[in-house]
C-alpha cells in the first residue's frame, strides 16, 4: 500500500490505472465511490447506483479530508482503494449511528471525469470592472471552461443545468473589441454557445427558444449547416412546415450527404403529408352536410 501522508493516515491501493492528467486541487470531480467500515463488513455510503454522479468541487463539497487527499493522487479513469485512519476520516466522535467513534474506514473510488475550474473560480470573484480589464485570452478560457461544464451536464441529460452554464459563458462574452481579430475570436466562441443553446432548448422542448439561438448563430455564419439544421428542427416541432423546409433544404445544399439532415427532410415530408390528409378530412366533414 502507498502511504500518501507519511504517517499511515491515508493508504492507497491502485485497482486500475488511469489514462488522463492528475486531478488538480481546483477541480470539480465526478466519482463513483463506496464507503465501508474498517473490516469491510458494513457499507455506510455509496453512489454506485447513481446514473449521473454529480460534480463535486474539491475543497468545498468533499468533507472527508483523507478522501480529498486520495482524490488528488488520482487520474481520470483510475480506480483505487483508500484506507483512512480516524484522524483523516470521521475522528474521535465518528458519525452516529453509521460510524462508531475512532473508526478506520475504507473507500473504493473511481474517477469518472473532472473539470479544472481554477480560472473560472477566480474570474467570478472579480468585480465587473476587473473582469472587463482582463486579457481576452483569459476571458475566452473561462468561457470555454463554462461551456465544458455545460457539455458535461448536457451529456448527463441535465439539460436545465447545461442551459444555465452555456448562458453563463455567453454573459462574459458581451465585451466589445476594437480589434477585428479579437472580435472574431469572441464571435467564434459565441457561435459555439448559440449552437449548444439551440440544441439544449430542443431537448427541453422549447422550440421557439431553439429557433432564436439557431438564428443568432446564422447571423454570425449564414452558411452554418448545423445552425440551419437546428432551425429546421425547431420549425418542424412548431409545425411551421414551410419554414422548416427552407432551413433544411439550405442545410442539405451545404451537406448533401448528411444523414441527419436527410432524415429530418423525410420526417418533414411524412408530417406534412399527414397534416394535409387531416386537413382534407376536416374539410370533407365540414362540407358533407351541405352535399347531403
UniProtKB/TrEMBL annotation:
Gene Ontology cellular component terms for the protein in this record: cytoplasm
GO molecular function (one): peptidyl-prolyl cis-trans isomerase activity
Keyword Metal-binding: no
Gene Ontology biological process: piRNA processing; spermatogenesis
Keywords: Isomerase, Repeat, Rotamase, TPR repeat
Top EC class of this enzyme: isomerase
Catalytic activity, as annotated: [protein]-peptidylproline (omega=180) = [protein]-peptidylproline (omega=0)
Entry EC no(s): 5.2.1.8
Claim: Protein transport is one of the keywords in the record: no
Pfam families named in the record: FKBP_C (PF00254)
Domain (PPIase FKBP-type): residue spans on this chain: 26-115
Protein family (similarity comment): Belongs to the FKBP6 family.
Protein name: peptidylprolyl isomerase
Species for this entry: Helopsaltes ochotensis (Middendorff's grasshopper-warbler)
Classification lineage: Eukaryota, Metazoa, Chordata, Craniata, Vertebrata
